[in-house]
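Sat 14:20. Reprocessing the chain from the morning session after the first attempt stalled halfway. Input below, unchanged.
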Amino acid sequence: MAKMQFRQGPSRVPFFKTMQRVPAGMMLIPLVLGVLINSFAPQVLQIGGFTQALFKDGALALIGLLIFATGAQITGSHSGKAAAATTGVVLVCKTLIPASIAIALGLMIGLDGFFGISILALLAIMGNSNGALWLAFAGEYGDERDTGAYVASAFDDGPFLAMIFLGASGLGEIPFLALVAAVVPFILGLIVGAVDREWTQVLDDVPNITIPFMSFAVGTGISLGTVLTGGLQGVFLGVGVVAFTGGLTYLGYRYVLKRGPKSGIGFAAGTTAGNAVAVPLAVATADPRFLPYVESASAQTATAVLVTAILAPIVASWVLKQSGGLTVHDPVPDAVA
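Finished this time. C-alpha cells:
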C-alpha cells in the first residue's frame, strides 16, 4: 500500500509533465542536453560501461525498440475501423510524394542538396510524420476514419522508408542485408501486435520511455555550432513541411476523399516525428557515404520537429474554422461506418 501511495503522490520536480508541455519536448529537451554535454564536456559520457552504452552509444538499439513498438501498434489498438482510402491518402500525400520529390532533387543536384540542406535531411524531415499529434487532433475534430489513419504515420516512422527510397533510386548504396536488418524489428512488431493485444498495450508506452533516451544519445553526436547554424534552415524546412505536405494532404481530403468542411484536418499531417531525428544516423550506419551529413541533418530535423509541432495544428484549426468544420467528434456517416 505504501508503495502504491508513493507512486500516486505528487512529484517534487515534475520533469515529465514539463517536457510534455513543451511542443516536441520529449524529443527536444533531451536532445539539447545531449548537444550541450557533447559541446562542453564530451568526456563525461566516454567512461565506458553502462553509462556510455546507454547515454552515448545507445541510439541504434533504442531506435530498434521504437520501430518494434511501432509495428505492434499498427496491428493493435490504434488501427480501429479506419477506411483504407483515408489511410492511403495520408500516406501518399504526406510521405510518398514528398519523399519521391526529395529523391528526384537528389538525382538532379546530388546528395549535398541546396543551401546547406542535404537530401538526407529532406528525406528525414519530409518522410516522417508525428503520429501522436495526428491522433490528438483527429481524435478531437475528426472521426474513426481520421484517427485510424494513424497507421500511415506508423508506416513512415523510422529509417526504412528512407533506405528503400535511397536504395531503389541509386542515390544510396544500401546493402540488402542492412535493409532487411532495418525492417526485421518492424515485422516482428507487426506479428506480436497481431497475435497478442496485451503486448500492444504494453508497447504503447515505449515511445514515452524510448524517445528521451534516444534523443539524448543522438544529441551527443551533434555540436552546438551545428545547431546554431542549422536553426534557420530547420525553420524553413519546418514551415515547408506544414505548407507542402500538409497542403497535399488537405487537397487529398478535399478532392479525393470529398470530406468538405473537414478537409482542414489534412494539414495536421504536415509534421515531422520526433524520432525522425535519428533517421540520418540510421541511414549513415547502412551507407557510410552519408556520414558527413548526419550532424547537420539531425540538427535541422530537430528544429523542424519543433516548428511543425507548433504550426501544423494552428494551420489545421484555422482552415477548419474558415470552412465551418471546427466541430468536435463528428459521427461517422452510415455509408462509411
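Confidence is low (pLDDT under 50) at residues 77-82, 330-337.
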